[in-house]
Amino acid sequence: MHCLFVGAGSIAAEYAAELADGPLSLAGVCDLEADRAKALAAEHDCPAFTDLDTALTAVDAPLVVNLTNHAAHASVTRTVLEAGRHVYSQKPLALEEAAAADLLALARDRNLALGCAPGTPQGPSQRRAGRLLADGRMGPVQLGYAHAHVGRVTDWHDRPDSFLSIGPLYDGGVYPLALLISWFGPVKSVQSATALDSWPEREAKRPSVPSHIEATLAFDGGLTVRLTASFYAPHRSREFYGLELHGDDGSLYLRGTGAMADSPSAVQYGRVGREYIDAPAQHPTQPYRYLDPVESLAASVNRGSPSRKTGRRGAHVVAVCNAIETTAETSGPESVSDYGVAAAPQPAPTVTPNSSQEQAIRLPAVGFGCSRYRNGTYVDRADSIAAALDAGYRLLDSAELYGNEHRIGRILAAPGAPDRHQVFLLGKVWRTNHRQEHMLTACRGSLDELGIDAFDCYALHWPEAWAHSGRLDRLAEKPIERQEALTFPEDDAGDIETDSVSLQRAWANLETLHKRGWARTLGLCNVSQPQLETVIESGTVRPALVQVERHPYQPRTDLVEYCHERGIRVVAHSPLSAPGLLDEPVLVDIAEAFGLSPAGAVLAWNVTQGVVPIPSSTTPSHIVENIDAAGQRLDAEACTRITGLQRPDFER
Prior knowledge:
The protein has 652 residues and is an alpha/beta fold. Helix content is 35%, strand content 17%. It starts with a strand and ends in a 9-residue tail after the last helix.
């Protein structure tokens, strides 16, 4: 779609730089300063204008992008709408609520699209924070603190006059307002507000309106937010565009409500009583582009349903800003018109599989191993498991052997934990419980300890059966000697005492649990391809998941390909613990090239190849580093080099 740019300042260059990557083309540029218009137009081989009416007559462009200064937005948008063109406007939509309302009405009456910046609620870190909100772990969210420290515009902008004439609310405050409105719906009222004229005496140029504003906003859904917008507070202060939200059960921190790019620390979560921890992305993210909302608006026009959604939000934001100014003068409270704005929260993620699912199950990119056995000793994993859930891990690898299912259950039931259907729980029956009566007891006990109705997947921990020597309830609370006597039964000669339960029989017993609804899917661990083939041939329920030790020394390429060809997901345990692995020069080199640690390169290698690694970390920094690595993808050459580290004779 052809578009006309009105305004050729620095922001116009940012928009124009992205045209080559999308469906829009620049048909003309209009600016009051002829040289600026000509310079930008020359770069895109289109005509330049200094008069808007002339440009609208001469250029066949259905969509106009209004990039003029703040005070001109409303009048330019009105002229364009009256000419029958669709409009996307930089923020704010207007400086007066009445003008914004008139623009909305005009667009509606003429069935024209009207969009308004900022579009950053669709930025990668904002969307991730929105999904965190949607997963329910914060409980009711009642309080928030939002900052918009625009900073001393006289220091960082070559033409600060437009900013100084309108104040920090209309330029910076719109970012947290737009995001909060998209999450929680409209602002119902401004409860209180204070406006200050703080400014350095040495500055020759001064704001003509208050330079610092603080307001308390009541949202329709019950949230109360203190908003601070400031030209006086430097934009490099500790808070720039930070947002902190507090719920009954946890808190969320978003580093930048107007951020366009993502970072591992952009979103943080802390459940009540625990420190904040970074919650990185688990999938590759793309930076938000200036043209993203413009292209979205153009798409709505092409569909025959011109959108005014962000235009309505822009009008409501103007109404909020006007109400803040009024409240600062009158002491309020001041009610705010909503202009039909409604919350549009991110959908709550779910990883619960369908019991009758024929296709490969969907799994998080990375999981978290819950074994207590670390470096030859047993450790308590409760704190690290809670930290992993807070950081965003949504697959927990549990087992009755680990002896801590009751502790995991307490973590999952505690305030601030994600909802049950947002965590994939993998359970494993130990090899001493392969007989049906023992397996039924073991599974039922594990479910009760975890406080759940069904496992998302329940698996044989090992294919071979050992002699039953007693129940394995709460092994973590038993003396180590007793734990090992129960789990590694010995005969009179001191050898492991086996049992005669075949793999086919053990799988049939596992299918009984599936029929009872205790496991949505079934899986196998530590199996060879022939053993897997035996189960597929003899069973009636297809394995949904296979878990094996997998790392560059032991890539299990044939087994992985066999599973993927049949829609069976592969989970890699012990992906980082092979002795000497992380010192391999190849890994060090690849890690440096992709901005990862050697451990991160191994995890990204697994994820890139469709395998879900389950590192078992005990420190918050490694927990975050590992989940962040899952958001990276390696190229084919790097994957081939890593797979080339294979050692056919590798043994533990």
